[in-house]
Design a protein that fits this description.
The structure is a homodimer of 229-residue chains. By secondary structure, chain A is α/β, with parallel strands linked by helices. The first copy, chain A, is built from nine helices and eleven strands. A seven-stranded parallel sheet of chain A has the order 7-6-5-10-8-11-9, sandwiched between helices. In chain A, helix 5 runs parallel beside helix 9. Chains A and B meet through helix 5 and helix 9 of A and helix 5 and helix 9 of B.
Chain lengths: 229, 229
């Protein structure tokens, strides 16, 4: 598969999947971070054709398919913090949330196989390459997976919901924590919300009324890191 | 000026600036939130031409120029929380930060006049219309404005910096708080950083090493709302 853009190619080169070939414009190929990397020189139009996007920044690479993780294995650490996205369909939102999760040290991210953005080149780009280091797993049915995850000792599943009665500042987030965020507009599906142990909300003091999913994830995840200390 | 997209047009209609005309495709014009609004029916290509963007969602409007606020007036509330962006040039990042600031109830946002994205149609779109309710001010020189803002009683200026030695969890954020974020990649300019009372950092546990400016803003602003209680 193709990945494009500076950060995505750089992180693919130092990540888990093999990179078969790198193409770059003459100008980008001369950048110091590519020292020691074999690069085929190509025109910007050729790189745009390979990338199928104008956001290639003069570089793209052919890499092995994205190595999805096993969802259950993400839950192994006793203090695992795992994010789930319920049918988030915009790959840029998926990528932006992956970047938050990777920077915050989350154990991984779980997405459903269907009606969800996958880790495509656009998601890689939006994650600034973070997907190469974060573990991302796909599950057939998110509500079923959450129910099985809860069977593990000391595991709590929190869902983010604007209409929740509990502030996100209330729980102590000890043990294993799974945080589920829904898609912008529709929120969590009812069965997913029902499977959560608790629904929590961020304070909302504005007129527009909601954050996008990546900024909500950032506020909640950094809050959880603070509260669980 | 033109604003485009559903949320931007809806919030412009209920915001501070006058809207002269609305154009929409036949399909979008029939949406219930436009009831009572005079809409000129136009083709998608005409709306794209007016919007100068493919992200118009079938609607755009001619509105008065964006009504920038006076920066000093943002600092009037005794507990004002004001965000500043130091030369953030991507209008989507500016818009995304405006959405965070509006949702979190910030008193406003300050940007420099030069080398900064302004509140353009692209920023309105990325803010989901939040710029119509948030107060955004432009100043000639950000470091100078920060220095003058600090002269006001009980005012503290914090800068976000990955290399800061102080965790963002340390201050109590009482009084008036100004939080300055830099552009992705370059961070705060030296004179801006020197003008801050304290530089603070978010925990970073990943390999990629940074959040984008809107997710960093979300983590910090919601943290400040919590810590200042």
């Amino acid at each position: 598969v193709i990945v494009y853009g500076r950060n995505p190619v750089r992180e693919a080169l130092r990540g888990r999947r093999s990179v078969e070939q790198v193409w770059a414009t003459e100008r980008t190929a001369g950048e110091p971070w590519l020292e020691g990397v074999t690069v085929a020189i190509a025109g910007a139009d050729e790189i745009e054709r390979l990338s199928e996007s104008p956001e290639h920044q003069g570089i793209c690479a052919e890499a092995a398919p994205y190595p999805y993780a096993d969802a259950d294995s993400l839950m192994e650490p006793e203090d695992a913090l795992v994010l789930c996205l319920d049918e988030v369909q915009d790959p840029r939102n998926l990528g932006a949330v992956c970047r938050v999760a990777e920077t915050a040290g989350c154990a991984g991210l779980v997405i459903p196989e269907r009606r969800s953005a996958a880790v495509t080149a656009a998601a890689c780009k939006a994650s600034a390459g973070a997907v190469e280091h974060l573990r991302v797993a796909r599950v057939r049915n998110l509500a079923d997976w959450l129910a099985s995850a809860k069977e593990r000792e000391s595991t709590w599943v929190y869902g983010a919901a604007a209409e929740a009665s509990v502030s996100y500042e209330r729980p102590d987030y000890s043990g294993r924590v799974v945080l589920v965020l829904g898609s912008e507009g529709r929120g969590l599906r009812p069965r997913v919300a029902e499977t959560c142990d608790e629904l929590v909300r961020l304070p909302n003091r504005g007129k527009v009324g909601s954050l996008n999913v990546s900024t909500a994830a950032a506020a909640l995840v950094y809050g959880i890191l603070h509260f669980r200390k």
